[in-house]
Here is the input.
Amino acid sequence: MSKKIFFHIGPGKTGTSAIQAWLLENRKLLSENGVLYPSHEQSENKISSGNFKSILKLQKGAWSVDNERLKDLVADFEKSEYKCLLLSSEHFFLLVEELNAIVPSAVFIMYLRNPIELLESNYNQGVKRHGFVNKFDVSLKRRKINIPRVTNILNLLPDNQVIVRSYDLALELKGGIIEDFTSLFGVKASIKHRVVNTSYSLEALELKRALNLFEIGNLASQLDNVLQRFDRGIKYYSLIPPDIFESYKKDSIHLISELIEKYALTSLMPVIELISDYQQRPYFSQAVSNEQIVEVIEYIKVENLTLFNKLSECIAAQSSYELDYMVLYKALEIESTKLDLSLMLNSEVVSALDSLTIAEKNKPKVAFQLAHLFESLGYKELSENFVAYCCHYNSEDKNYYNTLVKLHHNNQPVEVNKSVFSKVLSFLKSKFNHLSKSNGKNG
Here is the structure.
């Protein structure tokens, strides 16, 4: 019997959660069709990261392939009656080289999505699950999202080891992405179209973006469940200004056309027309009213009073942040506070930075970079001193102030050795003053 191993690698926001939810619920059906899909964890709203824990390991904050676990899994599969081993996870998208080296005969399945939609969907996901606090970035550098990585994978793998499907074309099928995916394995089933991992309304998105400043621990998953159910307000929106949207559309057509031509992906040709006909959702600037923020918080209170109370208690202990929506504090029935910068300013730090012969506008930037350096070295109090300088120099910059708040709440100050402190300041003065003599005072 000819056996095959398949890695479904996503990438993110191409229906992976829906696919994994269906595969997990239909393992028996898959088994009857000769497909082995190992079980994995899943949240109550059917979100998971797939099979990544089955074959990956976490080392120094990064995921890598666990050779032994993967080889053991493959060995067990080879002894079984199954004809296909299917593993699915978005984590695999960045580990194709490792996986291919260990299982050189494996087939990799990935989906391409309209880059314009992917940009906004990825941002929404970043706010939902990855703590994004900044507004949507419409800069040029983001326009090739995923395409360079897809190109690397296509360069690495021969045609018989990679399957590229269109997310956008799959959605036009009656059974959507599930029907498209299961067709690859000859599995026929009655598939009801459903949405897993729904996007937030604009109001919920903005509330979550504000709350991402705070450490709320395991309350995050409960909050996500509630916010996904918030079905009021602005559900259909785009954060891309219309003129930039049209530019994005041209870029997307060009990028996908190049990919199709270079790698003979003729099955994706209809995607070009889909992107050409794609109409932007109504554009909204990324801001909502105080009343809209209060409405979402009131919804949380009604839907899950326990969550509301725990959020209120948690945020009350971190209530010094400067928010785009300061009404959040009042709506959560807590008082906001303000850090006393005078208690964190260090006269020696101020003197050292003020004396640097570099452009005045660059001094807070230098101080901010040094603050991150000292934090990584374990000098928490010194890190606070440098960020406090940034706030003192530019009191209007919320990023500086909120960084200071985060340092203050998250770090237990470590007393700085006086001799180390003196050496750091002396080095700082000599280094920058030396450079300024070579580059000019405004360097």
